[in-house]
Design goal:
Length: 439
């Protein structure tokens, strides 16, 4: 940064400091608020100076983290940038609850949060609404190439980048390797092994998964649908109404026989608690669960293996995981955009991604870490399952995704609760999603 620019930036910082002190703002809104184009990042020089001249507090809103990754990331960041403090606003675990509270705040122009951790299914909606800052200038193409392209795509809307990928996710089958020689490859095999282990009294439940009426239900249901060669959309046509999907949903429902009675209220953590206590033979969950099942508090430490999601009778060679993951977006109204970007840049850097992968069990978005010995040591299956992990299938991409999801959540949950059969559930979804897309 040249001296005149630096002087200008400092003057703006001072002014904002005075302004925020007078205004009695609760957060120290004394960042520069510069827009990205004036201080392109990637250049350590510019970013560091701007972000470290005056103490700034930025707020990160993110769902509950049951691992140490968030705390350790913030600590490492604050050590590196002592003048930027990160206030962690912990949100509920459920993606939908986070979504609703962010939509309420952002649509009212709220600026109390600088960085939002957003689910991979939201960027189109947030970008179309103009709630988040485009990051193209902060995150140049040459840098983006180092990242997995699926997650980068999920941050892109209408040719612009509206978030940076934080970590990626793919549904996995966790199984008790001490109770079976090899994991099942089909849903039928899973059911039979689970049932047998229950009958033998080795476990209380065959299988734990997510069947509450929320976003996670859509993720689980899509794994049955995709693993039986069913589909939701073909371009903009709704193609759910097929034999493959109906059969897939019936298989899903059959799993309730070997699951806890309350599984239709389970989210990820409920399944994790049951599995970690040694009560279930199988669990469907995301990669973060690996760090938790192998922690010292876990009753199944070192007794767990990971396999691809099983396939249905009409499926391909292996089952299909649902693609999940989270991206970091900067509030369009943030007064600390440069400091916010510094934080995002740190989280997606090698150092930040290693903390996420090692302490949080998260799948890195930085490609090179899939060959990093420390990361592989903490998560040995990253190597053997690399193809499965990065070929997970996305949920429908649309600015109307939340409405599509709501229709699926309601109709699949009602079907699981026995209110109607799979065919009726599929017919309802087809009609409703068609109407949503036609608006
Ligand atoms: C995980 C996934 C996210 C998904 C959510 C559903 O957090 O990363 O994409 O929507 O689970 O519960």
């Amino acid at each position: 940064m040249n001296k005149r620019l630096l002087a200008l930036v400092l003057a703006v910082v001072m002014l904002m400091f005075v302004f925020s002190a007078c205004g009695g703002s609760e957060t120290a809104d004394n960042g520069t608020g510069d827009n990205a184009a004036e201080t392109p990042s990637g250049s350590e020089e510019t970013g560091d100076t701007t972000a470290s001249e005056q103490p700034v507090t930025i707020t990160l809103a993110q769902g509950k983290d049951v691992t140490d990754a968030t705390e350790n990331t913030i600590q490492a960041f604050e050590t590196k940038y002592p003048n930027i403090k990160v206030n962690f606003q912990e949100m509920p675990s459920e993606s939908d609850q986070q979504h609703n509270s962010y939509v309420t705040a952002l649509s009212a122009g709220d600026d109390s949060v600088d960085v939002y951790s957003i689910d991979v299914v939201w960027p189109a909606e947030f970008a179309a609404a103009g709630w988040v800052e485009p990051l193209d200038d902060y995150f140049p193409q040459s840098e983006r190439e180092k990242y997995l392209q699926g997650p980068i795509q999920s941050c892109t809307y209408d040719g612009k980048l509206y978030a940076a990928p934080f970590f990626t996710d793919a549904g996995l089958l966790y199984y008790r390797k001490d109770l079976m020689p090899t994991p099942p490859e089909t849903w039928d095999e899973l059911y039979n092994i689970g049932k047998q282990l229950m009958d033998e009294g080795k476990v209380e439940y065959g299988f734990v998964f997510q069947a509450n009426q929320y976003e996670g239900l859509v993720c689980d249901a899509l794994e049955y649908i995709h693993s039986n060669n069913g589909k939701v959309l073909d371009g903009s046509n709704v193609v759910l109404n097929s034999e493959n999907t109906i059969e897939a949903l019936d298989i899903f429902k059959k799993m309730l026989d070997i699951a806890p009675e309350g599984v239709t209220t389970y989210i990820e953590n409920d399944s994790l608690v049951a599995f970690q206590e040694g009560r279930a033979a199988f669990m469907r969950n995301w990669p973060y669960a690996w760090a938790v099942v192998n922690s010292d508090e876990s009753k199944v430490k070192d007794k767990v293996g990971i396999a691809p999601i099983p396939k249905g009778p009409k499926g391909d060679a292996t089952g299909k995981a649902t693609l999940g993951g989270w991206n970091l977006a900067i509030n369009k109204n943030s007064k600390n955009k440069d400091a916010a970007w510094k934080f995002v840049e740190f989280v997606i850097s090698e150092e930040g991604q290693k903390i996420q992968a090692i302490d949080g069990g998260h799948l890195p978005v930085l490609q090179s870490l899939y060959e990093d010995p420390d990361v592989i040591k903490a998560n040995p299956y990253f190597e053997s399952m690399y193809d499965v992990l990065i070929n997970a299938l996305p949920r429908p991409v649309s600015p109307f995704y939340p409405q599509i999801s709501e229709s699926m959540q309601i109709n699949i949950h009602k079907f699981l609760m026995g209110e109607f059969d799979a065919k009726a559930s599929v017919e309802n979804m087809t009609k409703e999603i068609g109407e949503i897309l036609a608006q």
